[in-house]
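Handout, section B. The chain below has 398 residues.
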Amino acid sequence: MKNKYKLFLACSVFALTFVIAFFPIISKDGIIAPVNELRVNPFFNINNKPSPQLKGSTYDPIHQFIPWLHLNKESLKHHELPLWNPYQGCGVPHIANIQSGLFYPLNIFVYILNWKWGLLLLYFFKFFLVGLFAYLYLSEIGIDYRASIIASISAMYSGLMNLFQFCHTRAAFCFFLGLWAIELIIKHSDKFRWYFLLMLAFVIAVFAGQPEVLFFMSLVLGMYFLIRLFSEYGFTKRAYLIIGKTGLVISAGILISSIQLLPFIEYLHFSSISLYRNSIISSSFYSFDAIIAALDNFFSKDIINSHTWLEFDFNYVSLPMFIFGVSGIIEFWNNKYVKPVSVLLLITFILPFNVPLIHNIVSTVPLFNIAEKEYLWAFSGFCLIIVGSIYLDKLFKQ
């Protein structure tokens, strides 16, 4: 099968999974609402069993993201730029709050359509683009198209996306766009358009309006880029030249997104939450039952009775992909893609536990203590999916 037909097949499958998962909303008068987060698994959930764990997760969409999106929509409808939010407290900056997401490209559907179809298309492209860019990245590293489709679907409906947040999932596809761009840069370092792709991933992630996901995405992509680059070229002049070009492109991306990024940094600098979180330099290691709960989340089943702060399914990747991922690490450890991705999986999984010494070192990284480190598990899940796709690739090619 030719590559263009494989891509068309993959896109069709991604679109079909969304239609199936969201058919109750598509076929009726209802709209996507935060109440969806009160379900153990909103996708293919036959029993529609309510989840006591996720009750608090509706707070942000109800009290922040939906009202902010409404303010964006109404302001633009009246040809006004919402610099200020007069409805919160005694009034607060709006665009300077990066979570307002005014410039997020996919919000255009909400701005120009009614709420039902605006939100549906917003959600469709959030999920679809995760699948598309995951597929393009996996295809670029030589994974069979069937394994790539399965792994991409796992990424589309992984823990971060499964939470159904209005804000936290908006930058997810930028991570896979960044991975794809990095591989193209390493293979075709003389072509500027691939650097532009990486810049685009960064700019959209800024406008997506979730600074914690943006911060950790940048951290993980940066580590992946350096590991892959030096493993491919060593510490040579060409490697440093690529780093220089990439740095210039990212700087250009910062300038493009500065209309929202720079005011937000100033806003954050004087935030009481920022000052409080940044004062927490070290803490003790969490108990063993936290690790058990993390494994429970990977399986996305209540097979382990553990109640800790690790309630949310940030790292859910489904049981089959979990098995494929672990098998891939064991069997293909020396693979040039498995080794760096496995290292990133280990790093992103361990850091949120505040392990002594390790935490004391990484806490010196600017903004690290301010961000909620649990978001790193989204990337540990994505890393496991990538390794799982490599194991699947072997099965399909046998």
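Note. The longest helix spans residues 115-140. Compare this with the example in section A.
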